[in-house]
Input
Amino acid sequence: MALIGKTAVVTGAAMGIGKAMTEILLKNGAKVVLLDVNETAGKDLKEALDKEYEQERTLFLNCNVESEEQFKAALQRSGETFGGIDILCNNAGIMNEAMWEKTVSINLMGVIRGTYLALEHMSKLSGGRGGVIVNTASVAGFGPLLSCPVYTATKHGVVGFTRAMAGASTVSGYGIRFNVVCPSFIQTELFSSIPSKLGQFIHLAPATQAVVDKYGMLNVSEVAEALLELVTDETKNGQALMVTPKGKQYMAFPSFNS
Output
């Protein structure tokens, strides 16, 4: 998929991975709608992007992915502003074992909510142009992060949901590819706040640090490059791309479908 003339929506777009995703999509020719609950950071980023790109190529909307009403309105506004939606990056996420219900609400339910709402705009069955949806998971979607059981569960869920939606889309004729990017530890605000968000598992913080020391840290641009690959390579559907400081790897899974 060539990105020139395409419209992308990115959740959690104001900082960290979402910001890097926004920037790489713009750099490659897409128009981008930035969705985030952090209005100050979102408007600041929009202002900075306006100095580098045409003002008409971006739109910032304050949107909480936990709200059906806000998410639906944001996608409606996105479609009306840019004439449709071609790409959705369900990227918004948190890590907070002390607030496990909110973690599930944002990390998993937000991804499902965004996907189902986007189908109304993107699916060829409802008059859309098709496209691609890329969800952000984590290496915790493949193996457990001991200090973060709920975060681990949500990321496993995102991987499974993405792969199931890819198959459903193929069989149903949605015309939408579904992929998931799964980075290891990244130097972001989310990572730096981990020790204060472990709740009852705070005693396992040293175990988490040991994993970080073993595997090292990614930067957000490496994750953005992986996203770009999943968006532009039209052969990729139902793929889970693991990204670590050692490189990228497409994960293999057993098949239970006939």
Observations:
- The first strand starts at residue 7 and ends at 11.
- The two ends are 29 Å apart (CA to CA).
- The chain has a mean pLDDT of 95.
- The CA atoms of residues 119 and 126 lie 8 Å apart.
